[in-house]
Design the sequence.
């Protein structure tokens, strides 16, 4: 079963997540349970897609919620997008694990948390949630060339740096960077997002 | 670097695959609330967030919810919350101690000294850590030759009356050296800290011994972690 993005999106853009973030900040009983009920399966699925190990995915999913709990005070509930922030933490935890278990730390790929500050998830484009998103994303990925699709896969699911991808694919770094940029450009266009890079 | 120079790397940054100077430059621009870079990275973040829409859904085990909720439950009277061994027995020990245990335990004066000892060991750059998953217990041990040992376990066997757990340093040569005794928690978990330098350690082992400990192990260790 694929993610019911339309439903998720409507909730993401509504008041529910904002109120949930406020409840988490107030440490209200039941707030964490509500957060888990809403995002637990999705966060676990994203992590599992990267680590492919149920035990590790369980640990990392737990850590994801723990990190949200400990950092929620930095989250601006009135403007934030709680779901995308949590999901970014989930993926980052998974990628960090794959990197560390593969002895890849120290090759220019330090912990990912710096790119998951809550403020970066403020004012996310709502339009990306206005469609049956799984189909849209799959269709967008299908429009990528083979090389573009491969670098996106290596980046998204394996967290390889562009240097590592160049080594793995036996291509110049500049070529890999071009593939990554062009792939993201295609995805942005297909997802109906404004090109910003 | 200028925003224009960094612009091509926004996507890589959002994917978490940026590296080198560009990565740190973008982070610096974001930290300084650079309007152009914040907007560009946010946009790229939305693309990456959208990509998770194609991930196949997998049902998590039912216990995951219990674990998540246990993390934020009120702490018990023991020096660490009951969920700690559960939480740190997998892949998250060091970061967890940093983000959660410190604020939690600093509210408990009796735990501060032990916490400081544990953090001193965990923060030593030369500290090695090994996970173990024996049939009788699972957990993780951190060993710093300069600072000491932190031993974290769950699912420990039940101690008989008059018995205690005893941790051993197994040197590369010679007999085991006691690293101290502990009894653990009522939920069969334990977090034990043994401060002080440790030289020549090839493995750590755990046995059950008579109260007060033994000069040498009196049973085959039920946990042995090679370092």
Sequence:
């Amino acid at each position: 079963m694929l993610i019911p993005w339309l439903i998720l999106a409507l909730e993401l853009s509504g008041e529910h997540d904002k109120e949930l973030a406020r409840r988490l900040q107030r440490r209200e009983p039941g707030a964490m349970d509500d957060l888990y009920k809403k995002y637990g399966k999705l966060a676990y699925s994203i992590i599992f897609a990267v680590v492919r190990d149920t035990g590790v995915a369980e640990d990392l999913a737990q850590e994801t919620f723990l990190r949200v709990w400990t950092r929620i005070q930095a989250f601006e509930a009135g403007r934030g997008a709680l779901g995308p922030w949590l999901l970014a933490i989930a993926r980052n935890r998974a990628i960090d694990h794959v990197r560390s278990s593969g002895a890849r730390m120290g090759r220019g790929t330090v912990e990912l948390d710096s790119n998951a500050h809550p403020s970066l998830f403020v004012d996310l484009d709502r339009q990306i949630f206005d469609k049956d998103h799984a189909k849209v994303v799959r269709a967008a990925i299908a429009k990528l060339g083979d090389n573009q699709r491969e670098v996106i896969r290596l980046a998204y699911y394996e967290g390889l740096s562009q240097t590592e991808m160049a080594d793995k694919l036996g291509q110049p770094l500049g070529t890999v960077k071009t593939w990554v940029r062009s792939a993201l450009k295609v995805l942005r266009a297909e997802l109906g997002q404004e090109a910003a890079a | 670097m200028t925003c224009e120079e960094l612009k091509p790397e926004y996507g890589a940054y959002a994917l978490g695959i940026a590296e080198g100077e560009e990565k740190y430059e973008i982070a610096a621009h974001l930290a300084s609330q650079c309007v152009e870079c914040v907007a560009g990275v946010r946009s790229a973040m939305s693309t990456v967030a959208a990509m998770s829409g194609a991930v196949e859904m997998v049902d998590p085990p039912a216990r995951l919810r219990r674990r998540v909720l246990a993390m934020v439950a009120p702490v018990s009277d023991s020096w660490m919350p009951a969920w700690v061994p559960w939480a740190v027995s997998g892949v998250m020990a060091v970061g967890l101690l940093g983000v959660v245990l410190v604020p939690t335990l600093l509210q408990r004066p009796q735990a501060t000294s032990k916490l400081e000892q544990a953090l001193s060991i965990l923060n030593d750059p030369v500290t090695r850590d090994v996970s173990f998953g024996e049939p009788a217990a699972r957990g993780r041990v951190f060993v710093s030759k300069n600072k000491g040992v932190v031993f974290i376990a769950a699912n420990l066997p039940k101690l008989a009356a008059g018995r205690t757990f005893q941790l051993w340093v197994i040197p590369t040569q010679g007999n085991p050296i006691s690293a101290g005794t502990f009894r653990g928690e009522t939920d069969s978990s334990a977090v034990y800290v043994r401060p002080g330098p440790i030289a020549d350690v090839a493995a750590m082992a755990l046995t059950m011994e008579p109260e007060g400990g033994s000069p040498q192990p009196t049973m085959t260790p039920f946990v042995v972690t090679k370092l």
